[in-house]
Amino acid sequence: MRIVPAPLLQRMIDLLMRRMRHSHPSLFSNLALLDSAVICVKPSDLPHQFVLRFGQGPTSLSLAKPQNPVSDACIKGKLEALLNLLEGRIDSDMLFFSRDIEITGDTAVIVGLRNTLDREEINLLDDITAMSGPFGGPARKMVSILNNAAQRINQRLANIYEESHPPSADWQNVQHERDELRNEVQALKTRLAKFETRQKRTEAAAQ
Q1: Cα Rg of the chain (Å, integer)
Q2: I need a labelling partner for 37 at 20 to 30 A (CA). Which of 122, 136, 137, 149 fits?
């Protein structure tokens, strides 16, 4: 995404949005019921920014341009964190409090978007590879291989850094306790988010 020319990247975004409208019609129907809003999405590890428009009409996602209107709110964070937020793989409150994402502007707009996303099960990789038709299976396998390779590289770099900066015994204990608490909090928040999602779906079905 860093090297793809802007016109080609916008074309890819348009194709993905078209695919998602087909695979998640209820999501776009629910987004259309919200108040009209504009959100600026700023991946901190990409040279691009995006503009998300939804509410009282069609939902669109486009590359930000200098003449874009002022947004109602902004979300900033690494691309991985933003995708986790989109797919509901991690609780948005945890992302916020851990400062993995930053939110500015009208927080009510972000909450409305989050609640709408939580009602839908989204797997962006499935939507992307589905656009490849009969090549979807091989494409998904290749993405998985690249993702695993990237994770191994990141872990290796982290190990090299730790080996060159050995922490004290006390600091190791603090880190261990911190990691245990973080894992427990994440597990509880994930269970709570899933429970809230099921409850919302049950209430929606009852209506």
Answers
A1: 19
A2: 122
